[in-house]
Amino acid sequence: MPDATIFADTQAEPKRVYVWLDWLEKQLPFPVYRVTKGDMTAEMLRIRSRKNEPEKGDWARSLIPSYVKNRDGSKGIMQRVCTHDYKILQIEKKVKELANIKRGEKEIKVTQWIGISLDEAHRMKPARQPWIVHRWPLIDAGMRRSDCLKWIESHGYPRPPRSACIYCPFHSDVEWRRLKEEDPEEWNKALEFEKNLQEVKAKTHNIRGMLYLHKSLVNLDMVDLSTASEHGQADLFGNECEGICGV
After folding, report:
1. How far apart are CA 235 and CA 174, in angstroms?
2. Does residue 144 form part of some domain?
3. Whole domain around residue 59: which residue ranges?
4. Does the pLDDT at position 230 exceed 50?
5. pLDDT tens, 38-94?
6. Are 82 and 40 in contact (CB under 8 A)?
7. Tens of pLDDT, residues 116-141
């Protein structure tokens, strides 16, 4: 049995994830620690000035892998640092505290379980720190995501939501459509964020292209999601190799 579990909160998860976590905390025989670096949404929308180099203009941080339409018509994708800064580092910080890890520790002191399933085995990755060893209990048990859901249903537990930021560009078309049809409040938050992100970038100078949440490079509310189960953008969480997001 684990000693504890840690949830790294970007403060941008859907409401249903927090409701699930509230329920889960009451079921587990070990503590759940919630850690956060702060409000990731506000951090991305905050315009900064270059005090030492004002001639270069204002700038804003880009944390998520937004899609970019450059002025010459070419396409690109922004660097993804959200998982590293807002999840991995915050989890490591809490683990160090709980395990009383001293600076420079080289001996393995912590076994960290990561909940990716067999169909996500490509996301398995060694620990970044020498004092941590990773284990993937669902993969060890040969369980796919569908097996996990069957197990949960057979025990009478509520179906868990996938943990990912509301506006994550890695969402598949199926997930975008689910958000639009089942969580209109969250869908509208994603639309508002995309609009705000584009407005911020228009006022800054570190990114010259237009940013979008969907690979099609059109605003999310204009994307055709009617055939999401057959065509369109696939689930891109496989690109998040650490196995922390989209589980």
Report:
1. 8
2. no
3. 5-101+161-239
4. no
5. 999 999 999 988 877 776 788 898 899 999 999 888 999 998 999 999 999 999 999
6. yes
7. 999 999 999 999 999 999 999 999 99
Q: Which amino acid is at 109?
A: K
Inter-CA distances, 1 with 12, 29, 30, 113, 144, Å? 30, 9, 8, 11, 21
Tell me which residue of 197, 157, 181 sits closest to 229, measured CA to CA.
181
Is 106 contained in some domain? Answer: no
What tens digit of pLDDT does each residue of 140-166 get?
A: 999 999 999 999 999 999 999 888 999
In a domain, 42, yes or no: yes
Give the rounded distance of the alpha carbon of 20 from its chain centre: 17
Determine if residue 104 is left, alpha or beta; phi over 0 gives left, psi from -120 to 50 gives alpha, anything else beta: left
What's this model's pTM, rounded to 2 decimal places?
A: 0.87
The residue with tokens 């949830």 is: 7
Backbone phi, psi, residue 81, to 5°: -120, 0
Q: Where are the alpha helices (DSSP H) in 12-88?
A: 15-27, 40-45, 82-83
Note the pLDDT tens digit of each residue in 29-52.
999 999 999 999 999 999 988 877
Question: What whole-number distance in Å separates Cα of residue 99 and Cα of residue 111?
Answer: 10
DSSP 102: P
